[in-house]
Amino acid sequence: MSWARKTSLRSSVPLARSPFKRKSRKRAKKAEREHMGVVAGLYCVVCRNLGYDESPAEVHHVRFLAGGGQRAEHADTIPLCPLHHRVGGYGVAFHAGPAEFQRRYGTEAELLEQTRRDVAHRIFASVAPEVA
Questions:
Q1: CB of 106 within 8 A of CB of 68?
Q2: Mean predicted confidence (pLDDT) in 5-14
Q3: Residue 90 lies in domain
């Protein structure tokens, strides 16, 4: 009995890209970057809800709208300070414990809705400052 391979390991046909794999966009489009800039300029949504003013924010892509392992669209973002986003530890930072974070501060859906209202108000105020 011979253990010699009868066929080569090389395939004569290159492997095709699976239709189920999405190519990720490496960079946000201009309008998306502008939107994320407005969101970050709102300051941390949790700090504002707790009564703290002007806490610099970074953009957090909400998870509840994305599939497993996928990031949400750039429009689906909320402003969180570094403490509430990633460095605050369990129960304080979203990435340290999402369930506890949402129990304490509100769900991502609620914070996203608040952020969307704040963005709309800021845009309206910049277009019609005498009305707002």
A1: no
A2: 66
A3: 30-127
Structure-block tokens of residue 35:
């939107």
pTM: 0.71
Residue 101 in contact with residue 86, Cβ under 8 Å?
A: no
Residues 6+ positions from 5 with CB-CB distance below 8 Å: none
Whether the per-residue pLDDT at 3 is higher than 60: the answer is yes
At 37, is the pLDDT very low, low, confident or very high (cuts 50, 70, 90)? confident
Distance CA 120, CA 48 (A): 17
H or E element, residue 125: helix 108-127
For the chain, the distance separating the N- and C-terminal CA atoms, rounded to the nearest angstrom, is: 87
- CA gap 6, 109 in Å, rounded: 58
In a domain? residue 5: no
DSSP-derived secondary structure letter, 24: P
The HSE-up count of residue 114 (CA atoms within 13 Å, CB side) is 18
Q: What is the pLDDT of residues 71-126, one digit of tens each?
A: 678 888 999 999 999 999 888 999 999 999 999 999 999 999 999 999 999 888 88
Residue 47 sits in a domain whose CATH number is 3.30.40.190
